[in-house]
C-alpha cells in the first residue's frame, strides 16, 4: 500500500466527531407515571433539626458503637401533639432512629458533656425487639 492510499484509508476510518442522524425513532418500552413521594413528615412541625451522630451501647463489648451520622429531628404532630425523634442519613435518607418521645423517657447528659445525651429506646432494626441504650 502506498503512502497516498494509506492516508486515504485512515481518513475514511477516522471518526468525524459528529453522530449521523439515521432518522430512526424509538418508542419507549414502558411509560413511567410521575408519583408523589411522601416522607411522612407532612403533618409535622420540626421543633429541632441538627446534624448528629448516633451511637448504640454494645453490652457484649462494653463500648459505644456508631450507628450513623445524619440529621436528627424532633417532629411534633400538628393534630395529636405527639413528638417523634427521627434521624436520617444525610445522603441516602436511610432511617437510623424513629421513635416517639414519651413522658416516661429519661434523657441525661453523658459524662458531664452538654453536647452528648443518653436515653433508652426500643430497637427493632434487626427484626427483633430489644430495649437499647442510645446516645
Automatic annotation (TrEMBL):
Which keywords, in A-to-Z order, does the entry hold? mRNA transport, Nuclear pore complex, Nucleus, Protein transport, Translocation, Transport
User: Gene Ontology terms, cellular component aspect?
Assistant: cytoplasm; nuclear pore
- For the keyword Phosphoprotein, the answer is no
Q: Residues annotated as region Disordered?
A: 1-25
UniProt-listed GO biological process terms: mRNA transport; nucleocytoplasmic transport; protein transport
What range(s) does the RanBD1 domain occupy? 25-135
Matching Pfam families: Ran_BP1 (PF00638)
**The UniProt record lists the keyword Nucleus:** yes
Q: Which residues form a coiled coil?
A: none
Query: Where's it found, cell-wise?
Result: Nucleus, Nuclear pore complex
- One GO molecular-function entry: GTPase activator activity
Quick one: where is this thing mainly located?
nucleus
Bias-annotated ranges (Basic and acidic residues): 1-11
Q: Where is the composition biased (Acidic residues)?
A: 12-22
Q: Which PANTHER family match?
A: RAN BINDING PROTEIN, RAN-BINDING PROTEIN 1 HOMOLOG B
* Name this polypeptide is given: Ran-binding protein 1 homolog a-like
Q: Which organism is it from?
A: Arachis duranensis (Wild peanut)
Q: What is the lineage of its organism?
A: Eukaryota, Viridiplantae, Streptophyta, Embryophyta, Tracheophyta
